[in-house]
Design a protein that fits this description.
This protein is an alpha+beta fold. The chain has two domains: 49-128 and 381-415, no CATH class; 129-380 and 416-456 and 459-521, Cytochrome P450 (Cytochrome p450, Orthogonal Bundle). It is built from 19 helices and 14 strands. It has a five-stranded mixed beta sheet with strand order 3-4-10-7-5. Strand 1 and strand 2 form a beta hairpin. The structure holds protoporphyrin IX containing FE.
Length: 524
């Protein structure tokens, strides 16, 4: 029987039972530390995988889960440090859910050429979005929506400009209805989010463009989904089946999915009926119709699955485009000297084209340059081109990538590297004319456009699976900003404040979502 006499801890003045001796405490702590590392090694991904040098907190004995949590808070510093040391080779960081192997862009061409059976973009999306726990596992079934974006939506963007601009003007008129000629506060992110959600719905599923339930669901499905993914990434994946049903947002995702199916399925069935019964029926000009026409297998043609894909396209598009536009508005408030030249550019383009069309947008070269510069300073993520290695790969220089490794490229640091960045000004200097000036040079025509991907510009990924919606995003951002300028809006920070701070979540960068700026409308 344990000795029941007590002694007093001289440091804390606490009475501890004599039976708890220091060696036992150390043994217990070691036990906890060992168990965490062991469980983590069993259940977290690629702990044993790649031989790439690890970059992160250098304290060797720290348990992996602590290193992962520290990445959560210090991702930017860790990624920039890794880039500084290994920008021409390869390094590994320990994110909460998976280890990521960050590769130099010198491997880009080689990796782009590999077939999907070797490295997969879809697998990376599913891995990063917690797959079936966030309803994103449908991505594995087929690339229907991606192909439809590439082959039907993008070629038709020119014809969409006019209706999109009308929709934008009407949403701006209602969202900015409180703005007069005196400075009035307005929260930027939610206002832009509402506008982009409406214009996106008019392109994706025209009958629901002004349906409040659809608009609410298309925005809140995404927000709840990312909340679930965020929470799950904090815990080992073997706990996901048990923990996910305890998260209220998990049930909200399912609710929005069910309600999207209930709204979209009747539209699909009605359209099929109309097409079958009326030879003169004119198919609506929207993304849903194009997906219906491109769907080949019964699974792809299933109305509920089409609804699910519409939500996933909304997920890929609405917040990404809103974040980029919000950054642009914040940057214009920080560098107001660009407002008048941009307004001038918009006026000239609209005037010479007699309104908004594809050519009007093509003329907005300074705006294109400003948006790209804003994205360089505020990228959606510091890492891009995520791929999962399906079969072991040995690259030409002998670098070995084991099966199941998640690879990616340092898109953020590349934009701040003076040996990569073009232009006359140093990387740390914001220059809205940077790409505008480069495009004027010999051979610079299209190379430095916002939507052009390349070794120096990976914010839309690269290769076959580069963002298929980037051309739509660019048009939406330019039309929204252009319409604001055309209508005579001005904006600035509130007295005594500066650019609202970005939020860093692991490698992701999000603009401040609640900050208010002051707006006014000047007479034109
Ligand atoms: C500024 C806004 C946007 C940004 C920054 C952005 C960024 C990205 C990035 C980095 C990828 C991964 C590419 C890769 O791994 O190579 C991606 C994929 C994707 N994006 Fe975008 N995106 C934006 C807007 C949009 C829009 C408007 C749509 C839809 C109309 C869209 C649809 C998609 C889809 C479907 C994929 C997955 C492609 C696949 O792997 O099958 N995105 N996006």
């Amino acid at each position: 029987m344990a000795n029941e006499t007590n002694f007093t801890n001289p440091l804390l003045g606490l009475k501890l039972p004599e039976s708890i001796e220091l060696p036992k405490i150390f043994l217990s702590l070691f036990g906890i530390w060992f168990t965490f590392n062991f469980v983590e090694a069993l259940f977290t991904r690629d702990v044993f995988g790649s031989k790439a040098p690890y970059v992160g907190p250098s304290v060797q004995w720290l348990p992996g889960f602590v290193k992962r949590l520290l990445f959560h808070a210090n991702a930017s510093r860790i990624i920039y440090t890794g880039y500084g040391k290994f920008k021409n080779s390869i390094f590994r960081v320990m994110r909460n859910d998976y280890d990521l192997v960050v590769l130099s862009t010198k491997y880009l061409e080689e990796l782009r050429a590999l077939p999907d059976t070797k490295v997969s973009s879809i697998r990376a999306h599913i891995m990063n979005l917690a797959g079936k726990y966030s309803t994103t596992d449908i991505l594995i079934e087929s690339p229907l929506h991606t192909q439809t974006l590439q082959t039907r939506l993008t070629p038709n963007l020119g014809l969409l400009v006019e209706p999109m601009q009308k929709e934008l003007l009407s949403t701006i008129n209602s969202s900015f209805s409180t703005i007069t000629d005196t400075w009035t506060p307005l929260a930027v992110f939610p206002t832009i989010l509402n506008g982009i959600a409406r214009v996106s719905a008019s392109v994706f599923v025209s009958p629901l463009a002004e349906n409040a339930a659809w608009l609410h669901g298309s925005v809140h499905y995404t927000e709840n989904l990312f909340l679930v993914v965020y929470i799950l990434k904090l815990i080992p994946s073997f706990l996901w089946p048990f923990v996910s049903p305890c998260i209220p947002a998990y049930w909200r995702i399912h609710y929005y999915l069910r309600s999207a199916k209930a709204m979209v399925s009747p539209i699909v069935l009605e359209r099929r009926k109309a097409a079958a019964e009326n030879p003169d029926w004119k198919p609506p000009f929207d993304f849903l119709q194009w997906m219906m026409e491109e769907a080949k297998t019964p699974e792809e043609q299933n109305p509920e699955k089409l609804a699910h894909r519409l939500l996933l396209v909304s997920l890929a598009s609405i917040h990404t485009t809103t974040m980029c536009t919000t950054h642009v508005l914040y940057d214009l408030a920080q560098y107001p000297e660009y407002i008048e030249p941009l307004r001038q550019e918009v006026r000239e383009a609209v005037e010479s084209e007699g309104g908004w069309n594809k050519q009007t947008i093509n003329r907005l070269k300074l705006m294109d340059s400003f948006i790209r510069e804003s994205q360089r300073f505020n990228p959606p993520s510091l890492l891009s081109f995520h791929r999962v290695v399906i079969e072991p790969v040995t690259l030409a220089d002998g670098t070995f990538l084991p099966k199941n490794t998640q690879i990616c490229m340092p898109s953020g640091p590349l934009g701040m590297d003076s040996t990569v960045l073009i232009g006359d000004k140093p990387p740390t200097e914001f220059d809205g004319y940077r790409y505008f000036n480069e495009r004027k040079k010999e051979g610079g025509g299209h190379r430095h456009q916002f939507t052009m991907t390349g070794k120096d510009h990976l914010h839309f990924g690269a290769g076959r699976y580069a963002c298929p919606g980037r051309f739509l995003a660019a048009n939406e951002i330019k039309m929204l900003l252009g319409t604001l300028l055309q209508e005579g809006y001005e904006w600035k920070f509130k007295e005594g404040t500066g650019r609202p701070k970005n939020w860093n979540m692991e490698e992701k960068i999000v603009p401040h979502t609640t900050a208010e700026l002051l707006f006014r409308k000047v007479k034109q």
